[in-house]
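User: Can you predict the 3D structure of Universal stress protein? Sequence below.
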Amino acid sequence: MKKIVVPVDFSAQNKKLISYAVDFAKMIHAKITLLHVASMDIGYAIGDLGYQYIPEVENTVLEDEAKKLDELKLEVEQMGVSCERQLLQGIPSVAILDFVKKAHTDFLVVGSHGRSGFYDVFVGSLTKELTQKAPIPVLVVPVHE
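Assistant: Sure. Here are the predicted structure tokens for Universal stress protein:
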């Protein structure tokens, strides 16, 4: 069975991205893995003594994101496609590319928010980086309104 990885960020546009991914998975008889990459600094807060690491904050955020992934996984399964979910921490582009290699993924389905210009210069485009560096075919879904 073919494998599709769909990176998700829990934004409103995820519904459209997942819908496309499910349709694609049905066409090629594939299984979907929903992948979310959490920030590495979610347990840090700034206080009177500077930055402090608070593991309880990190655990709470990761538990919340795991629940959101479980809900999305259930939605995909209800649409008739086998689904797994994976929660990682790190730099999104690096974590996604490492995961698709290790998981022997066949396709990567990513969303494009339609930003360009100054946004890409200062913030960067995850989709652009993935399409340039991915060792597998990347399906880019326009998810902007």
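Helices lie at 14-28, 55-78, 92-102, 118-122, 126-133. Strands lie at 2-7, 30-38, 44-47, 50-53, 83-89, 107-112, 138-142.
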